[in-house]
Records
---
Amino acid sequence: MPLQIDNLTLLLLALFLALLLYSRFSRPSPLVHPLLLGKQSEVSAVRKEGETGVYRSFATGQGTPLVVRPAGALKTAQDIIKTPPSKEPGAAVPRCILDTSITDEALAEILRILPLGLRSTFSTLRKATPESPSSILILLPPSRTVSLPLLLLALKAPPNCPLIILPSPHLLTAALTAKEHPNPGVIIVHESLAEDVIEQAWEDLSGTCGVCIFGDPDRMRKGAVMAAKEKGMDVTWWSDLWDAGDDAKREELPAAGHADVHSYFYSETSTDPAIVKVTHLNITAGIAGVLALFPAEKRPSGSLRDVVASCVSLNTPFGLTVALASVYSGAGFRLIGRKEQTWDDIIDDPAGELTALMDKAESQPKPTILFISSKHHRVLLERLHSSIKYRPFVRFGVRQKADGLFAGHVSRGGAFDEWSFGLARELVLGGVAGKQLRAVVVVGDAPPSDILGMSHVLLGLPLIRLHPSFYSTGPVFVSHYYDVQSQTDWANLWHATWTKLEDEVERIEGKGADTTEEKKRAHVGPPASNVEVVLRGVGQGWDAQDGAGTKTKGEKEAPIKGEVWVRGPGVVSRLGKETSDG
């Protein structure tokens, strides 16, 4: 009997073939080759007893000089803003820097006037020399509304006048009497502490230190200022520096060298605070490390009208470097945090902080790159999930995202993504995760590894995990930009992953038992691009031949434990002690 094929059979065969070809070729290609994620660090061939080998980023490799600056022209922090300003397209367009709209030309003029105004107002700064420097102490609240003076002085301070940056007023006496750095020649202080600081400066430094008051537009502290002037102290308001700089004789101030001290930072511990010294070389190396987080086409850019929003305080070396890197790249910069100009403890409100970024009343541009904490990341996922979990067909969108993630790919766009997640991203927390967002970096404690998949699905973006240190201007560990690997249960992505996230929320808020073990935390990646890392004190049980932890039959391999030591051009010097980050 001859084989007969009717039209219905042909139609079904054609449909089957079409589905087969679609499933074969519709899966997206991975964002990065899997081999690059298999070995992200390079270890040295030799090691010392009791230590591991020296680890470097695989992209840097062993024997290669570590990068000390992102470009040859950037030798010091004073080179971040070009003078005269750049004539490149977009340079004349205002950008948002700490909620202030300003062009590069206006910023360059401010940075020209500021050192002249300080030198003409305060004689101690005018007399500073390389052999006898005088420092500028900055005591401002950790508020996004009063951080501009710190950033301006970090960009252009008078010559031979390094900054002393305090995170708390409790450290003022220690900073005024410390022998590790030059005595302050002037204190930039918020008006709420003006009287106390003037009195303390008079007692500790016998009136040789001036005071500049910031945040007193109505001159409410005039009585304290006049009383201090009668004693012979130099006291003025921040707004008066601009007139003094305009009236001062135009002169070319000496340029700083790459080895000159840029600033001193105090840790937040009030009992025995650590003091670190940051040079201009540390700053430029930190900027190079921050920009190396991103592929060349994904870096912050003025041409893309990027705005970087960071939750890391400018009172830390890494937080200040993120701000300087944003300004250098031509992007805007905003701080995530409290608006209140106070040092008082305020209830943690990560949701409110993210929503404040999108406040339409302030008319500020939306952030395109976020440096957030794990708490901000967690509350963002919570709100996104609550917004979309009852939407129709959302499971099809999740399934499509899961297929892409399984292939090493995640992106925004497409009908399912727009229908399932697009509206929620535009509405949740003011739209902080909307269409404009193109990069998210979690700084500090990494989120649990088994919710990374849900993060990639909800945000439609890779999640960069970064580990900073008080002893480094740049990142110490950072995951690959395109690393979307996770321990997510793909077979039950929606329910299983979200249940674990709720357990993590309860653990953080103290409502339930600690169900998340330390080993379930997501990794923070290999050493950063210009950092070397070694583990010391690993113990005698560590196997020197294969570089693995010891184990017996039937047991899992024991993790290597020890103290993390870092080295590189971005690692700063701790005054009085050897630098470590254990």
---
Amino acid sequence: MSGVKTLTHLKDILKKHVKAGKHPAYFVPSVWMDQNFEAPIEARKVNPHEFFLNAIESILSKSAEASVVNKGKNGDWSAGAIVYNLFVRLGTAFDHNQNGVLDLPLNRDDFRETGTFLKSIALLPYINALGANTIHLLPITTHGADGKKGNLGSNYAIRDPYELDEALSEDFYGFGVEKEFKAFMEAAHHMGMAVVLEFVFRTASKDSDWAAKHPDWFYWVKDSVTDRPSHSSDGNLYGSPVFSPEELKEILARQKSGNFENSIPPSQIYRNMFTASPPAKFVRKDGVRWVGQLPDGTKVRIPGAFADWPPDDSQPPWGDVTYLKFYDHPDFNYIAYNTVRMYDPVLAQKTNSKNSLWKEIEGIIPFYQEEYGIDGVMIDMGHALPKDLFSAMERRAREINPNFAFWEESFGPTKESRENGYNLSVGYFWCDVPVPDKLKALLDRCATEGLPLPFFGTVETHDTPRAAARGERDDSEFFWVLACLMPVVPYIHGGFELGEKVPVNTGLGFSAEEIKLYPPEKLSLFSATALNWLGSKPLLVMVRDMVRFRRANARAFSELGPETFKISQKGDEVELVREFQGERVRAIINMQKREIQLLEGRR
């Protein structure tokens, strides 16, 4: 039982609380307990100590399962993953005392109603029952307060990537967040599930702990500079640099050709907002923000970030994070597309590298491998990291675990991604499948040239509209069937299986009107919210059964190349065939929202 030492210790603590006999009224969704997907889910009253103890004992009572990680090499096990995406803070949030609100930070009985690792351990049998063999965790580290949105702030505004978010621990038991996460990892591994942890490496919260000792790792602007409000293009205020139509045309043309030499800089007005880094001894906290002073007395601050591509992106400013300064050159002391993504060749020289920052970042993944045993990482905007930095990160991680996985948050995976060491990508299933013409093109591509890199089979992520909000239940079922039949990696974004309609964030695919409907106070990425767990959830059964079907025909689905996938179309019918090593699966897909008669030869 050495592989579950921390989990066993947690079990012993829970036993003491059960023996003490005292417990508050505590409610959980019934499906967390029985994994009964056919019955309506109800709020079930339990003894919390017994509930958590029973969950852990149930996990430990079974022999350790073989992990998907044992297959392939260099992280290629990712292609055989069935992924459940868990945002811990949201995924196990629940109104445990049934008073109608999520109490913060604790309820009257000193239990946390936002999600925790302990509750996530109890959720593992549910995730396992859905058929997932891999868990993708959104960021779990400490996050900042400067520019915080909502009542909690974003987990992507990372204050210290080496420290876990204390709010993800169940304080009642005093186990501590580090041990609680370690117990979660042990439980998941015991059940044969891999865990992939998401990180953000090119940004940090504006009040990052690093700024006090290493102000040179950050960009600084004059404190007198005013931030530009949303929907403004006033170039005299700080925000995304404003380019003329002619400049934009030239920048886009150069990006398409891959020529970043002599890149077009932002205006002189914009560049003059930036200053040198203040000496560390002159950096201090002013409330929740860092401020500094230059030797000449100029007061400076760390600026917020923004979407850097395309240069005229309309996303609201990211006021809670800032870009890290990977290179230092006097001619490029500003934040723009050519300093944080498509690095100008003059800037991207080894002599300009911030070596101390690079080494600090290179150590993050090995720390989580050695301390917690994570099986892979999803890198937010990983394709925008300096190539030499990513290569060093990959090398160190795979020295520890040769089968460690690297996933990238890219919507257009390329052969270069594969060559750079990535195993899996977000891809474009989410935006192409709901559009008939794009779906047909994707099917054709899978059957002819194949995909340069496996990507997620999902029509929703934490940044997109929910599938249930796009259409009826039939649409979600259709999307999931395709995700399980096509040569992609089935990916359950937590809440999809419940028919959840409220998005986590409004980053991609939202109209201006839709964004107004979901201010930070209503979005899980920034505020305390819970999934709609209760009631009848018919999609649960279909999600589970399609995964079972895929697993029952595992050989036919084991390879993702074009030679294993064939399509043919007659009228509104598309025939899909998956075949490998003598095992064959054939499916007829109705591409229209109306009843059709199967054509001759299809029966």
---
Amino acid sequence: MLFMTFTRFVPWRVAMALPAASLAAAALFSTAHAQFDPPSTVFGSIADSGGVVPAGVTVEAYIGDTLCGTKGRTEFTGDGAARVTVYVVDVVSESQIAGCGTVGREVRVKIGDRFATQTAKWNPGPVQLDVTFGSASPAVIPTFTPAPTRTPVPESTPQPGSTPQPGQTASPAATVETIPAGSPGAGSPVASPRGGITSATPGAQNASSGGGGGFPIWGVVVLILGGIAAVGGGVGYAMSRSSRAGADDDDLDPPLD
């Protein structure tokens, strides 16, 4: 009774459209919340004995006669002589389009207006299929290896006894000479005449002793030798005078009785 009363105030065309609109809204809601299986991404290189396949060519994928992939394109990768034409196309699953991808189904790839003779097996995720036309051999997709980074060279470690200045390399500590083995006090450092430590090498000691400051050793030696010569000369002169005096006494006449 209520429905009949409602239809008296609503035109019959509007009343007929309400149930249809409700069904359409329910269908759209269910489609928006549908979960589809992931597609199969078919990709690979393209080699053509008739010439280079340009970039931007449309790529489609078919399973049987059903169009299951329509948004593929060709691209270039690599540089110079290593440049290769490649393609990629997503092939949807049967959960999205009836008759499309399930595991193991054969996928045909159409590049431009030509079907490739090679086919791929549908599988969720990436699937590589290199395509050739004519007598061309499959092209290898170039791989890019990152350049190795340089290993930093460690700076030199300062040696004990010296502090390097910025931008300078530390010098090694001085070596202390010791008394040679087999001598009394072997292994002990050699003391210098003025205190401290000096080299055990005689030449080094002489060089350090004859250096600046104080009376030189060679001067002392000259004075000593000069003194010895003077003393020897005086002794010789005295002896010669004694000998001459004795000879004169012998020449005197004997005393008279």
---
Amino acid sequence: MSSWTNLKWLPNPASIHDYPALTVGLSLFTFILLIVDVASENALSHKFSLYPEALGELDLNRVSFYPLFHSGLFHWFLNVLTLFQPLAIFEKTHGTVYTGITLNLLAVLTALQYCIAGYWLYPGTHAIGLSALVFSFLAWLAYKEHFVRPNIVLYRQEGSEIKLPTLFAPVAYLFISMILLPGSSFWGHLAGLFAGYFMALDYMKVLYPPAKVILWIEKKVDPLIQCLQGVVVYYKEEDATHVRSAGYTPISTVDVESSVSVVAEASASASEFHGEGHVLGA
């Protein structure tokens, strides 16, 4: 059975110090913003929610920051729950700062699509939350993983199987979420999905700063990085560059609860891996 069906969505609080820094930080930061927003009678979410006219008005704060705010505790919890593992996998294999840049690029690319389509289809509609990014990272994972595992086995009994192509699994999730959560933003999720496939096809590469710029940033904030040791795991650009250049790491070989460097894991798996390991997926 595909590792995608064995996803352990909920992080283990006992080993939270072994999770990637940005993944943990984003979850906590958005929760704090939720509390502040509720206390201010939703003033923050109203100020930063995305709507189609925001692009024409050049309201860049809305275009960039809308994912950080949520309509309530359930909205926040559901988004963080579904984003945590895919984002942790990405951060561990791509680096912490690189992942932060990716989040912003995906948010903007999603917003551009949402605003352009919404100008005609749904003017005046507002959107907030991390859910579009959930679909972006699921799309990225699906595209990369389908080369390793072309199908997800949904059901197996007495020799018969029902399979779903891994590449299109996020599309199925999109329609399932539309049915189960009718109040959710279908168009926002669809835009996030397109942005994720766009990233998976490496079309976003031209938008990233050179690695030396990220290394310079890390050098400047190194005292803060050192403070994170023992609290969460920071993945440096120097190590992540080697992992990214080596190609895609199948999710069945990435243990987001391990603080061991992916470089070391990749080396070990090359000589010892025989198809076993901590299975993660979506």
